[in-house]
Amino acid sequence: MQQVLSHPIFRRLFAAQVIALVGTGLLTVALGLLAFDIAGAQAGRVLGIALTIKMVAYVGLSPLITALVARMDRRRVLIAADMVRAGAALALPFIDAAWQIYVLILVLQAASATFSPTFQAVIPEVLPDEGDYTRALSLSRLAYDIENLTSPALAALLLTVLAPSWLFAGTVLGFLASAWLVLGTALPARAASRDRPFLERVTRGSRIYLATPRLRGLLALNVTVSAVGAIVLVQSVVVARGAFGGSARDLAVLLGAYGLGSVLVALCLPRVLDRLRDRVVMMLGAVGLAAVMLLAGLTVLLAGWPGWGAVLLVWAALGACNAAIMTPSGRLLRRSAHAEDRPAIFAAQFALSHACWLLAYPLAGLLGAHLGLGVTMSLMGAIGAGGVILALVVWPPNTAEPIEHSHDDLPPGHPHLRGARRVAGAWVHAHAFVIDDEHHAWPTNG
Predict the structure, then answer these.
(1) Do domains 6-187 and 205-395 have the same CATH topology?
(2) pTM of this prediction?
(3) pLDDT computed for residue 446 by the predictor
(4) SS3 state at 430
């Protein structure tokens, strides 16, 4: 980890990510307090609509905005996104109606849907070595987990000495600091790209994503992650305070166990991925994630809740399995597109993964309210298992190896055919395969 942090450009970008995440965490707490001030007992409804708007913005706007900024300087794009987020957060304390929250959340999350895929696509170019990039992914996973653990505590600490409105000031400062760090960072120039029509730029990332077997497998695993993760994020409060009659502190401990499991695995993964293929690690994590949730649900359904310590271990295991799936996912995306297409493919992952969450969140909430936690955990675990089975079907082994394939659509002398041999009227060669302008479909028979 120290080796990758010694890289000056990555170190500044990582610091920008961490600071922006802390700001986002403070915003989450402040938004809840603001919703209660405006809507009182209806605050949950307001927050539910706001979170739905967030997910819709992520799903619908990320590919569109990525296409719009495709030719722009990436540093300016990142800084502009941070400034828009800071402006939206600065305006939140001055609003006095629920609809105004919805408008500002849409603006805020549209900026986040711009920042995140652009940021994620830059890192593989800053760290071209796969080992360094793997360690960067682990650090990024750690940053998300630690933010989930520390931001609520930091917000609680600040609220002991400051008014709630000052939490928005902390959010604004976080985004401004992130923009300042990016401003002082020299990012690699964009890879040369062809001039494409706007509609093609909008859809290109999704087309590459859905035509690539390992990324179709990743999408199936996103189903598993969102189905099980929705239980953790939506129903943990019901487990801690309803099933066990605990306090807010117990809820924090339960979520902390989930975060701790994720942190421990993220720390170990770089060495594991040096020895095992991404597909093996991710499938093991997915099988564990679905199995733990399914078994926990059946246990609750048939025998009642186990002890509090056992529940903490279950949540820690869920966090560990989740990290085993999500941490290597950036390696798959990096490997599946040329540099010019990486922003589009990261935007596709951003949109498609959040589409899974958009379905999983209300499903976990509605099933829990009508069928009880035991049935809901079992059903969501079963959905997660279905995602694993689908991933095994659509993602065969060895898709990262050089694949022999033929071209009958390229003229003789085309640069891509250098070294190819002529067989039965077609040009045949082998290389690491990605979907691009010369390869429109994945070869099925070599």
Answers:
(1) yes
(2) 0.85
(3) 43
(4) strand
